[in-house]
Design a protein that fits this description.
Layout: E1 5-9, E2 14-23, H1 27-35, H2 37-43, E3 45-48, E4 56-61, E5 66-75, E6 79-84, E7 92-101, E8 104-115, H3 119-137, H4 144-156
Antiparallel strand pairs: 1-2, 2-8, 3-4, 4-5, 5-6, 6-7, 7-8
Helix pairs in contact: 1-2, 3-4
Length: 161
């Protein structure tokens, strides 16, 4: 099974996920798919609120996670930095970088702050999300739950670096 995410320990309790994929679309289109509420809803989350730097929005992910997200950085069309559950012990940082590669775009996503013993769930989850992003770009529906279920055993056996 092909995996696109890696897992890294940050300390003895918490870790990070890094996933990347190249999409067959231009950087502006991929940016819009990742920052426009209507397009986000097609592949990862329903988002409501003021989408401005410094603002906090509410999100409901296909992975069932729900909660507040603060927008820290929005450097169109190259970089986004978000804080999920700001001000809590469950706070996590989500960062994405967009790089044009000819008429395609590379997306790198990093999420940190998760318990080491649960990182495999997040690795499988981000791969399933990024595959759903590809499906959304061609008008197909999300397959997140089925794909996450299929990927989780592979990520469970992967090392945390």
């Amino acid at each position: 099974m092909n995996t696109i995410a890696t897992m890294h320990a940050l300390d003895d309790r918490r870790g990070a996920i890094r996933a990347e994929e190249v999409y067959d679309t231009g950087i502006e289109d991929l940016w819009a798919a990742c920052t426009t509420p209507e397009r986000l809803a097609r592949w990862i989350a329903d988002v409501s609120g003021d989408l401005a730097v410094g603002a906090t929005v509410e999100a409901s992910f296909t992975s069932t996670w729900e909660g507040p997200i603060r927008i820290e950085v929005c450097d169109r069309p190259h970089h986004i930095l978000l804080t999920m559950e700001p001000g809590t012990d469950e706070k996590a940082r989500l960062e994405a970088w967009f790089t044009a590669e000819g008429d395609k775009t590379r997306l790198v996503v990093e999420e940190d702050g998760h318990p080491l013993d649960k990182l495999h769930y997040y690795g499988a989850g981000w791969q399933a999300h990024l595959e759903d992003l590809a499906r959304s770009l061609v008008g197909e529906s999300s397959a997140w739950k089925e794909r996450w279920t299929e990927l989780t055993p592979a990520y469970e056996t992967m090392p945390v670096e």
